[in-house]
């Protein structure tokens, strides 16, 4: 009797393993990966899906099997076997999750470290010498206010392209991008492909969260505290930038776009905007928003937020 | 037998509206009032899901949407699951340990009567502009979005927190000090172990939340700057204090239902619980680990890299005691004689759904992955699988299991099974698609979203309607069974725990004779003839009549 049941268990184990491995590699649940960091996170996610799928099938399979096989027969009032425990079995099923979480912890640590989560440049930004980034004084000035800089980001690699530094300011309900090198101020983010992008995040009013789903990156922007995100886009395209932390009534509309461009397109855009913004002057960004009504304040952001005229009219009625 | 039941002194319906100190009355008061708030929280959820059926904010304004989501979360946590668990604990613990009442009956009544005014206060915030900064109430948003609504929210949570602390003191004392002499700590039912762990957690963590809310209140009312960055305060400190309570709160909410499942499965599968000590100690392990994981809610917030690693490790470690419980429950069912009544179906549904929430829980413990899905619908899916698939299904398993004991009537099994099937389907149709929504890029707490997310949102909304409709057979069942249900025997499930040794419903003084511990709580299949509690009671009756 033991041999056939062992064979059945073995076959079931092989089938569960094969389904789990196949599903772990082919689930298609994640959006496109647009950076090297995202590919690493996806690798970790695939492993977790594989393990989760296996455990899911084993436990749900057991439950369904019990429901069918061990259903009480009509009129049977006797009890089942008085099995109160099995020490070796309990040791095994304590050890297996322990080993799994141990492996996942180490793998997660590795991925996090590769993403730059433990990188001294990012986490100890307050100790930078100002001479290292003379062109980026505002970030350092802010960073020096806090002892620990938050976020994720590798140290700039000497062999890689020069980073693009952008100050990102989150306000209700828009992202404002300030290019430290060129002085361009924009409502959307444009970066060249294969260049490290160094974002210095801050918030003007309440907590926001800067989320790039295709880059698997997110960082809260906290008033009075700087945070950093460093990543290298590897795929040309345009991607959503989303605020993930509840920041007020129109939080759902706080969106922008990240355009990853070829080096040439990026340089063209840079030149056009430097000229355009020089001609426009600074008056347009120096509007005193406190004197504007909420409706007037929100109108310029309506398109970015995906809010149409009808909704704005509704919002005014509510006011 | 029926004559004996009707002869036992029972409470009048008016007693349930008074400051009655009987733990059974208080248990029912907790359960009924928490169901009342469940329906209100559910209505809020349905309005939100209807709003989310389309991408535009066309049903409610974004402000109202945020008010609804804030109150939905607050009500479901503080006025539904936590008090419902307290309801079971109040009703069952003295009966399970063979006591006449809780250790501090007046404190117990006080703890309950704090809750209804707190709930009314919370709901009345709509008159002054309900809070709209989420149940987390993070400053500085909570300091900016309406002072009085926020203040009402703080006051009601402080009241409920006080109730929770008083309840926890009572549960711990009753479990540790009021057991009958024969019952050592390793022969008490696992529900008592679970409540011990849950109450210890509540006692340690709730005061920290109270401190955070008092300071937030100072910032709101008198303009201090504890958390307000505009005046030099630090909003991250609030997050630490808030989550120091609010992560353990998850375990405060789920541990009692772990206990209920550990009671339901052995009885209805006619087998001893598998690994009694492992399940008991794993509750304590979860309780301890639950205290040192709070910053995983702040992985994308103001948490430095090395701290993220520490909290990732502790969070992942919780999978071990939780896994022990799930495997032990499966082993309890294995080889049993499963009576597939509604209670057991909800019990198995609990294990099945909680497993999904547990697996996604391990995933989001991993920092790199959590960074992607934090504050998205993946998280919404995760905690609804844990708290609806876990707590609420566990709660229903408990209601169907102890309904005969509490009311003296059996429930209608057909309506119960319809309730289970609709709940289980509704739960999965509602919350499963949310995993994918979050992974693809839909953030939570939004009334408007991109068009690409509509199909999955529509499925989710339809699922929520099934879930809402599932409560109708339940309500009909409760009302019908209370009036017309078959008279319940003292021990219809042939259970071995002490609460089944007394009449159904129990007399005011619980046991007419001091209960006798004839067996462990789960010794099914060992010698069913000699330990069957029906026989035990007959024996007691004989002794009493001879005496």
Percent helix of chain B, as a range, is 55-70%
Strand portion of chain A = 15-25%
Oligomeric state: heterodimer
Helix and strand content put the structural class of chain B at mainly alpha
Biggest interface between chains: A-B, 91 and 98 residues
**How many distinct helices of chain A?**
9
Low-confidence stretches of chain B: 1-6
Mean pLDDT of chain B: 92
What is the H/E order of chain B?
A: HHHHHHHHHHHHHHHHHHH
Outline the low-pLDDT stretches of chain A: 122-147, 282-287, 314-319
Shape of chain A: elongated
The CATH top-level class label of the largest domain in chain A: Mainly Beta
Structural Rg of chain B? 23 Å
Q: From the alpha-carbon coordinates, what is the Rg of chain A to the nearest angstrom?
A: 27 Å
Helix/strand order of chain A, N-terminal first: HHHHHEEEEEEEEEEEHHHH
State the shape of chain B: globular
Number of strands of chain A: 11
Biggest sheet details of chain B:
none
Mean pLDDT across the residues of chain A is 81
Helix amount of chain A: 40-55%
Our count of helices of chain B gives 19
